[in-house]
Recover the amino acids of this structure.
């Protein structure tokens, strides 16, 4: 009962934080779509999608290993400064790479000068995300996700106020990007304050950093492959299809991305308990099967209401009604995404990161090849179908591995 109460409470706070941040993002999406149309929204999607590829390098999977340590509070400063230095370096790298992205002034396919400038500006969020990831590690360890919700609320309020000012003054699209950046600054600073951890004076234990990096490497590679596997279709669409196609697919994926974050919240709340279970003995296979069944069922429950609500996209703007098709295709894989989410963290708790690395490497290669082949002919419809197929493949491999290795896991 205590476990259920703890998981439920902290899952609710994570969902609340997500609702706040996603709710504000959704309102901003409505503003951008109405003010700038599908092409303007597509430009914004190119900016955010490209930079978000690099959030994983800021995350680096450190939290999963950091949470397995006993003295996390005393090591918070090391984790904080490690991420801070990495994120500042990434800002430079992303800015250089963004400037080198291709663009055709004839077909208007690729990354325009405005988009490249937006990437430069939005890359600052790599620093704010690094601060948030470090703060979240403590929130997760202490099961204090209410602090995450509070910091998300502050960031959302600032972003919305600034976006409202942008529209009131009829400012260009880049000011929307600036609003996101400033909202992220406020959210990260509030989260850092709520950790109640001292970050001065500046210090970092190099031995600790090396040890953390070595232990984290398999998880980092797995998460990197996982991220690219999730986002590569949007990047390939931007290179091969029009900005309009990018905008239509990105809007559909934003709704889907919110839905597949729900099992992650549950998994985050359960991960400390999974670690404790593995430390004391081993998580029974019957319990793993129960987790998988519950997560699959929750995914099924969400499909029907969202499926019938997709025509409401027309209220954003008529052009975005086209997003209902890729969204419905993506919804078919929702129960699968729910199930693979918990199985992934069960395997990480059992220190099976190398197997997950193999799974996502194979899935990524197949995903890229299929998208390159089919995007030119079927655009975002192909990307949505390929996403479904890829996740089914991940589920089959992970579940088969658990069944076959049940005696040794």
């Amino acid at each position: 009962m205590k476990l259920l109460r703890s998981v439920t409470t902290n899952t609710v706070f994570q969902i609340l934080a997500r609702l706040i941040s996603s709710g504000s993002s959704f309102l901003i999406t409505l503003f951008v779509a109405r003010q700038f149309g599908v092409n303007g929204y597509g430009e914004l999607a190119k900016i955010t999608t490209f930079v978000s590829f690099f959030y994983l390098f800021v995350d680096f999977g450190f939290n999963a290993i950091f949470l397995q340590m006993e003295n996390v509070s005393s090591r918070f400063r090391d984790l904080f400064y490690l991420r801070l230095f990495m994120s500042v370096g990434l800002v430079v790298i992303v800015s250089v790479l963004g400037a080198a992205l291709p663009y055709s002034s004839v077909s208007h396919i690729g990354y325009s000068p405005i988009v490249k400038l937006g990437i430069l500006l939005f890359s600052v969020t790599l620093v704010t995300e690094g601060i948030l990831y470090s703060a979240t590690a403590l929130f997760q360890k202490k099961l204090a996700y209410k602090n995450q919700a509070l910091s998300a609320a502050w960031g959302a309020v600032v972003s919305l106020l600034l976006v409202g000012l942008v529209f009131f003054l009829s400012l260009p699209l880049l000011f929307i990007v600036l609003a996101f950046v400033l909202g992220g600054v406020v959210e990260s600073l509030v989260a850092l304050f709520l950790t109640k951890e001292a970050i001065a004076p500046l210090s970092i234990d190099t031995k600790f950093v090396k040890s953390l990096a070595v232990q984290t490497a398999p998880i980092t590679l797995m998460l990197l492959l996982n991220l690219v596997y999730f986002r590569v279709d949007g990047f390939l669409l931007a290179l091969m299809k029009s900005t309009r196609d990018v905008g239509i697919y990105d809007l559909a994926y934003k709704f889907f991305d919110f839905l597949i974050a729900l099992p992650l919240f549950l998994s985050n709340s359960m991960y400390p308990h999974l670690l404790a279970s593995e430390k004391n003995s081993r998580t029974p296979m019957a319990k793993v099967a129960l987790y998988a069944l519950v997560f699959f069922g929750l995914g099924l429950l969400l499909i029907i209401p969202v499926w019938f609500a997709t025509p409401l996209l027309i209220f954003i703007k008529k052009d975005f009604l086209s997003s209902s098709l890729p969204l419905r295709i993506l919804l078919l894989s929702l129960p699968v995404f729910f199930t693979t989410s918990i199985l992934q963290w069960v395997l990480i708790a059992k220190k099976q990161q190398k197997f997950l690395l193999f799974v996502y490497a194979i899935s990524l290669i197949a995903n890229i090849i299929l998208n390159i082949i089919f995007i030119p002919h079927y655009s975002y419809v192909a990307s949505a179908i390929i996403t479904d197929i890829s996740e089914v493949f991940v589920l089959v491999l992970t579940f088969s591995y658990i069944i076959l290795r049940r005696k040794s896991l």
Residues 13 and 146 are 5 Å apart (CA to CA). The chain has a mean pLDDT of 81. The chain has two domains: 1-204, 216-409. Residues 216-409 form one domain.
